[in-house]
Amino acid sequence: MTTPASGTTTPHICRTATGAINTACYERRARQLRAQTMREGLRRLLQFFGAAWQCVKTCAARHARQRALNALDDHALKDLALARSDLAAIASGAFFVDPTRRQRATAPATPQEPTMPRPICWLNGQLTPLEEARISVFDHGLLYGDGVFEGIRFYRGHAFRLDAHLGRLYRSAAALRLTIPYDRAALTAAVQETITAFHAQDGYLRLVITRGEGRLGLDPASCAKANTFILAGHLALVCEATRNAGARLIIAATRRLGPDGLDPRIKSLNYLNHILARMEAGNAGADEAILLNAQGRVAEGTADNIFIVRDGTLLTPPAADGALEGITRAVMLELAAALRIPARETSLAPYDLYTADEAFLTGTGAELIPVREVDGRALAACPGPVFARLMQAFRMQIERESLHAA
Ligand SMILES: Cc1ncc(COP(=O)(O)O)c(C=O)c1O
């Protein structure tokens, strides 16, 4: 009698020494195969239940989202983050394979190098490869800094506070009598097109309108049409260690231009004072510089607004003292109101920074950065309790708005 081969899908035909079919052997083998088929069926059923369980988790994720949307709920936010990583694992297939792979999917044992998408550019109406994105050397934006811009962050594929950014962009352009060749709907669509093409969930956009190409000489009359471009990339103003430990600030000798020179509400391409102040910070080994206005009042950072906390009250300089009307600054004031943290705009002197209980910087590039030291004076708390509450609320707000936009 020959031995049936194991692992085959049809029963091997067993024969007796005379060559007749050995039916008992055949049936035994058939039974074995039926059992094997049942085991396989069971395995698939379990896999199916695994998938169903993931669906339940997806519903839990939705529920967590809803809770996050309904309330400033830290637990819901954590659930949401977990659910997101589970969903990412499901999408990658790692969840279905085995529990060890699943563990790895939710908590990578070895940190993965994030694959950074290359910066891309939308130029005058179309996505353009970076190496082909060119504007003329006669563009007055380049020759004289004649133009306006916005830095915009996107989270989960959606531009954060895009309406506010576009509002400020059109107001800045109007103040400079610069015609933006696209209406708001077209610019909104261009921003979304750029985000989609960038292939990353989170990132930073630079939306720039230059006066356009013209003759040499300051007069913009020869510039027929503004150039518009949007760059998508990544931007971090400080490293993670500084973000956690707090930034060290200096007060720069370079002053902020006053409203009688250039109104601080105009977000123009003219940043030379800020660049000089930033260089001062670099020379002093500090992370950022604060500019004062001509009267010696605190205006802002080189690319961010400043807040201090004194006796539980949040204080920030008004635009009249030289602060840009920052979008992130406005979000802070909103969140402070929601959290019942007293907050107001007020003139500040360097003394107020030196003696603050807490201080922090806000901006689209900066996001929120706690301050630990100003001109060598260590602040009482960094990150302080008010900062911690606002930071958490800010994260929640980003989640909430990106979920609403989705
Ligand atoms: C000079 C200056 N101040 C403040 C800010 C912060 O403004 P926002 O929060 O709108 O980014 C910026 C941002 O670019 C800036 O350049």
Please report the number of helical segments: 12
- The CATH topology name of the largest domain reads D-amino Acid Aminotransferase, Chain A, domain 2
Overall structural domain count: 3
- How helix-rich are the residues, as a percent range? 40-55%
Determine the N-to-C terminus distance. Answer: 68 Å
Q: Tell me the β content.
A: 15-25%
Low-confidence stretches: 1-9, 89-113
CATH class of the largest domain: Alpha Beta
**CATH homologous superfamily caption of the largest domain:** D-amino Acid Aminotransferase, subunit A, domain 2
Your description of this structure?
It is a single chain. By secondary structure, this protein is an alpha+beta fold. The protein has helices at 23-70, 74-92, 94-97, 99-106, 140-144, 162-175, 184-198, 240-245, 272-283, 327-338, 350-354, 385-405; strands at 120-123, 126-128, 147-155, 158-159, 203-210, 227-233, 247-251, 288-292, 298-301, 305-310, 313-316, 343-345, 358-363, 367-374, 377-378. The radius of gyration is 30 Å and the shape is elongated. The model is unreliable at 1-9 and 89-113 (pLDDT under 50). The structure holds pyridoxal-5'-phosphate (PLP). Pyridoxal-5'-phosphate (PLP) binds next to helix 10 and strand 13.
